[in-house]
Amino acid sequence: MQLLLAAVVVLPLLGSAAALLPAPPGLKGRDPEQAVLRHGVTVTGVVLVLAIALAAGFDHDHPATMQARTDISWIPALDVRIHLGVDGISLPLLVLTALLTFLCALYTYFRMPQGGSAKAFVALLLVLETGTLATFAVLDLLLFFLAFEMVLIPMYFLIARWGGEDRARSAWKFILFTLLGSVVMLLGLLLVGLQGGTFDMVALATDNGSSLSHTTQLLAVLAIGIGLAVKTPMWPLHSWLPDAHTAAPTVGSVLLAGVLLKMGTYGFVRIVLPIAPEGAHTFAPYLATFAVVGIIYGSLACLALTRTGAKGDLKRLIAYSSVGHMGFVLLGIATLTPTGINGALFANIGHGLITGLLFFLVGAVKERYGSTDLDRLAGATGAALYGAAPRLGALLAFGAVASLGLPGLAGFWGEMLAMFGAFQPAEGLSRPAYLTFMAIAGLGTLLTAAYLLVVVRRVCMGERLTPEPEAAMADGPAPDRGPGSASAPTADVQSHEFAAWTPLVALTILAGLWPAALLGLTDPAVQQLLAGGNG
To answer: What is the CB neighbour count within 10 angstroms for residue 7?
Structure first.
């Protein structure tokens, strides 16, 4: 188990280095790019298999215990250690990261975006995977910071080199926002480590803030919270997200929404709550306030984008929807209750599955119609997916109803548990205030249903028309067109798309019908985390 976790974290980095080497003569495939794309699928596939083996070997009777631990001294002078481990909180995020990265590599093998070499793309994708996996596996504050920052450069280049219109500005906005937030977060992590006498997250969680003064906890939560809130993203620190999603290639959007946003909320649960509980208690009502404002703001922004004539972009709409969905995650965390935090962790996984699927689907729509502009899809091109591409239309409708929180699907349980947590917040928090937050969040669920149903009506329903080449070409650089291009009948779901999307659909249904599988992992770990300790 110990070697298994280390291999899961390190293998993508080794694979990234190997991707830059010349391909062996017998493995070059149909063209020079085929070998490296196949290499990306192989490496991410092996990592996924190892992550599943790690989950299978995990002691499910003791999910609160840190397992598969590696603890090696790295910088003795600072007591910084290479400390890895997983529990019921981090294990689902590790498996989700490995799954989404593999599906992205598989999708890229058939639909490599234009803009740069395949070698660079695969290498960056694997570095990104290493950074995200390490974030969920490390148990040292400074290593957490390094892993947290490791994802910025590959995501910047994925957007800047392989993105769409306005990609350079969007990539700079992404990296500047996240870097500035991270500088503040580093100050908070250093404050905790120096005042607490160690950077070991397990030791600090067990100490439960007793070695940190009240003032130190307040400063630490404020500094660390700002950095985590930018990555989450929390309103009003969210403005980099819609631009980054709109410009990013399909797989960039999938990983950004499905994995990178989870790094921020994971940090709140893993670091802020157990290490500085007094500071977390003081700032919890403010976090809940920003969370519910984000829920309403994201929903209203999406509704505005669905209006006829607003020229709303479908990718931008899903990005704004993420602001609202992550608001529910933050609300659950801000309740400081096991119910709310379990809901937040469940919503993290549900959002990763559903929004990852939605960005895959929107990418497929753009490949077929050359645009994600809602007015164009609903009007000039006559998207009418139910008639033109019934399977694609059905999957898009499935993703929409899952995202709006339909009972029986993964999007339902996290939001419901977050609101249950707000109904009865932790002792010392104002119940009337949290009841107000719960009511506002409930309104947000109605607004979410409204804009997603409008999207389904405008994109999936209507008269079936043949897409016009001029409309498809008006959206910037020509996409990689297949048999479903604007000049041909719309192609329905193809085999490689079916392979990439089916696991997300199946897991969305499974998590919705069998929530105990995930809650059984997270609940004991959350209970122990709040009590102090990560044995």
So the answer is: 17
Peptide bond into 233 cis (omega under 30): yes
- Domain ranges for the chain: 2-531
Q: Count the Cβ atoms, other than its own, within 10 Å of residue 304.
A: 13
Q: Which DSSP symbol is given to 23?
A: P
Residue pLDDT, tens place only, 432-465: 999 999 999 999 999 999 999 888 888 877 655 4
How do beta strands 67-75 and 80-86 pair? antiparallel
d(CA 112, CA 119): 11
Question: What DSSP assignment string belongs to 335-371?
Answer: TTSHHHHHHHHHHHHHHHHHHHHHHHHHHHHHHHHS-
* Residues ≥6 apart with Cβ < 8 Å to 176: 240
User: How many CA atoms, within 13 angstroms, populate the side-chain half-sphere of residue 139?
Assistant: 27
At 294-338, the pLDDT tens digits run 999 999 999 998 887 777 788 889 989 989 999 999 999 999 999
Rounded to 5 degrees, what are φ and ψ at 198? -160, 155
The interaxial angle of helices 141-150 and 118-137, nearest 10 deg, is 160
What is the pTM assigned to this prediction? 0.88
